[in-house]
Amino acid sequence: MADQSIISALVLGLIEGLTEFLPVSSTAHVLLASHFLGFQSPGNTFAVLIQLGAILAILLVYSRKLLEIAMDIPTSPRARRFVLTVLVAFLPAAVIGALAHDFIKTVLFETPMLICIVLILGGFVLLAVDKMQFKPKYHDVMDYPLSLALKIGFFQCLAMVPGTSRSGATIVGALLMGADKRSAAEFSFFLAMPTMLGAFTLDLYKNRNMLSFDDGAMIAIGFVAAFITAVFVVRSLLDFVSSRGYAAFAYWRIAIGAIGLIALYLGA
After folding, report:
1. Which residues pair with 141 in a beta bridge?
2. pLDDT tens for residues 118-147?
3. pTM (2 decimals)?
4. 3-state helix, strand and coil shares in percent for the chain, rounded to the nearest 5
């Protein structure tokens, strides 16, 4: 492995971990950074497979709550309903993602200009949503009804276009459907577990014959970097969005998208 490739994998892993649970689109950041760094990955698998680090970060941070839910499932209807709401929210992405996988990876992932434009548009959407005065009806993810979970699941499917942001789409969807800011972000964390694990498994299976030992080593470096940084983000994000909202992320999206468009125009 070349030193440059190792450094690129490390940088991309840090970017993944820092952005996965922010409404800024980690996939867009990783794909754009890969483009400008000249980092190549067979079938663009790197951007998807290093997300496993972010998944493990959620499992670590929420390990106590996940264990409590698991222990309560046999005796608690509330715990069983919560697990069902997460699975119902995951269902639309599971179906559409499996059907559209090849198009997403070979067309959408390969169009940097589209990614930049979607980043900018999503930034303006976040600004608009952040200024809205909501009257939340749902304050605890354990009490989300199945109908709300399904609607959030369809919003999550918007993130199949890189630049949209999975967390951003689910959070905005939850807010529009009556959730408060904190529980919307928390539900996005829980929904990330089956969604990202499903994407990881599908992508690994589809590209299993394309990956070499060096590819695996690069993915491992990115995975570790993503895990470490994602732990920090997950632990701090809920308090941040509860008190400050999403405007900062909106401006960040717009700035990154604009910079990306300028760089592409200049032939970078």
Report:
1. none
2. 999 999 999 998 888 888 999 999 999 999
3. 0.84
4. 80, 0, 20
